[in-house]
Specification:
alpha+beta, eight-stranded mixed β-sheet, three-stranded antiparallel β-sheet, 16 helices, 15 strands, about 40% helix, binds adenosine-5'-diphosphate, binds zinc ion, binds magnesium ion
């Protein structure tokens, strides 16, 4: 039996306005090679100046992960040649990163938890992009110099599920902190997945492969499954030590396979040395004080929701996993509805009807809450409320107007209901006699008939009450 060992390196693009060492804009999707200057083009003589905001955001992340923050950290040059790296080196941190050892807690669906060690997080600048177009290749350097925070985990994860829980939690923390848009499609949150296996019980670490640049949870899961399989087969065939070499691999979403991209460089290959153009980063007491004041994190929000709104633990984690959803939920509760109803109408009814993110929902929090409120004050039935929501998904109108327009208001008015009830009772004299003789089950029959006669508009509770009165 084998055990899987996974360690993750996540690259988070920080949402600073300008690049890490120059004042060029970091905006995405601009005309190629327009957001560039001598510094991010790596021209000789141009000097880097560190962006303070990136440092502040690193401190915030370190605080969220309960990490040691190094008072003094160093920028190093990591030397390698690639067309999208005009200077011939990346400015990164090596021996002394800004953020040291920390941790991240993941939650399993059964309520159990596991703590994953976070080795470090360091600042570095991103490379540009190579665009391959048939026989020619283009280089776009707009992204070159964009600030990245690389967050490196310990090899603490044992399954693809754990890896995904770690990534989703980290993604959510980064969004809560507001330090990155963490847009995976645009590559602002991407990761390298390191995978190895070992016989169960063995505590050694064996040769790992690194699957580079993954930006989809689904593909990460598939890539891990493929890689684990490959390692196990090699082990069982007795060729693990020759077949599995430390290397960088790429995942192909079409085939679901990984393939070798290049042999893995060792640190020595990069000839790291302190960047002589940059002084050490010193974090003062005042900076620590100021930037360790971070917003409420997903776990805290979850605990608060459970306590204040009396919702289930699991529901609270679903809602707080996404910041937009948590905001939406809290906005609904401002309308004074019950937490339980808010959960159902948000996570089941609304989400079930949305194909896109909640941010683009045609029905906003206030409207959805108003629908719930109309159920709670007996204006409409739950069934009618679904019709109102269906209508509002397609049309812009107020909840009360839609209730009127679709004629969904429940009749609770005694006079109107008695009129219907009396007619039903008059039409069924034998049943009334049977009821009075003790066959109380017949009440359901009368309720059904009344509801039918009212075309579903009667308030069932009220009907029950009035029928009992009449039959008494
Ligand atoms: P590099 O930048 O060379 O990939 P790092 O030390 O930055 O090296 O990252 C190594 C990553 O690989 C870490 O996340 C670590 O937990 C993980 N890792 C190290 N050894 C193993 C192993 N044997 N199996 C799986 N993951 C590993
Ligand atoms: Zn620049
Ligand atoms: Mg790596």
């Amino acid at each position: 039996m084998f055990e899987v060992v996974i360690g993750l390196e996540v690259h988070v693009q920080l949402n600073t306005n300008s690049k890490l060492f120059c004042s060029c804009a970091t905006s995405f999707g601009e005309e190629p090679n327009t957001n560039v200057c001598p510094t991010c083009l790596g021209l000789p003589g141009a000097l880097p100046v560190l962006n303070k905001e990136a440092v502040h955001k690193a401190i915030m992340l370190g605080t969220a992960l309960k990490s040691e923050i190094n008072q003094k950290s160093i920028f190093n040059r990591k030397n390698y040649f690639y067309p999208d790296l005009p200077s011939g080196y990346q400015i990164s941190q090596f021996e002394v990163p800004i953020v040291g050892l920390g941790q991240l807690v993941i939650d399993f669906p059964d309520g159990s938890q596991k703590t994953i060690g976070v080795t470090r997080a360091h600042l570095e600048n991103d490379a540009g992009k190579n665009i391959h177009a048939g026989p020619v290749s283009h280089v776009d350097l707009n992204r070159a110099g964009t600030p990245l925070l690389e967050i490196v985990s310990e090899p603490d994860m044992r399954t693809a599920e754990e890896a995904l829980l770690y990534l989703k939690k980290l993604h959510s923390i980064v969004r809560y902190l507001g330090i990155s848009d963490a847009n995976m499609q645009e590559g602002s949150f991407r990761c390298d997945v390191n995978v190895s296996i070992r016989p169960k019980g063995d505590t050694n670490l064996y040769t790992r492969c690194e699957i580079k640049n993954m930006n989809s949870f689904k593909f990460i899961e598939k890539a891990i499954a493929y890689e684990v399989n490959r390692h196990i087969e090699a082990w069982e065939d007795g060729i693990h030590s020759t077949e599995i070499v430390q290397e960088t691999r790429l995942f192909n979403p079409d085939s679901g396979e990984t393939r070798s991209m290049r042999g893995k460089e060792d640190a020595a290959d990069y000839r790291y040395f302190p960047d002589p153009d940059l002084r050490p980063v010193i974090i003062t007491e005042e900076m620590m004080e100021k930037y360790s004041q971070i917003p409420e994190l997903p776990d805290e929000k979850k605990a608060r929701f459970v306590k204040d709104y009396h919702i289930k633990d699991y529901d609270a984690s679903v809602i707080t996993s996404q910041l937009e959803m948590a905001h939406f939920f809290e906005e609904m509760l401002e309308e004074g509805i019950s937490g339980k109803n808010a959960v159902t109408w948000l996570t089941v009814e609304l989400q079930g009807r949305l194909s896109d993110s909640i941010t683009n929902s045609p029905v906003d929090a206030k409207k959805l809450a108003t629908i719930v409120k109309r159920i709670e004050d007996n204006t409409i039935s739950g069934k009618a409320a679904k019709e109102v929501l269906d209508y509002l998904m397609e049309n812009d109108a107020s909840v009360d107007d839609v209730i009127d327009k679709l004629g969904l208001k429940q009749v609770s008015d005694d006079g109107a209901l008695f009129a219907i009830i009396d007619e039903i009772l008059a039409n069924n004299p034998e049943k009334v006699a049977e009821y009075k003789a003790g066959k109380e089950k017949l009440l359901a029959f009368f309720v059904g008939q009344t509801m039918k006669a009212s075309k579903g508009s009667a308030n069932p509770q009220k009907v029950n009450e009035l029928l009992k009165q009449r039959l008494a």
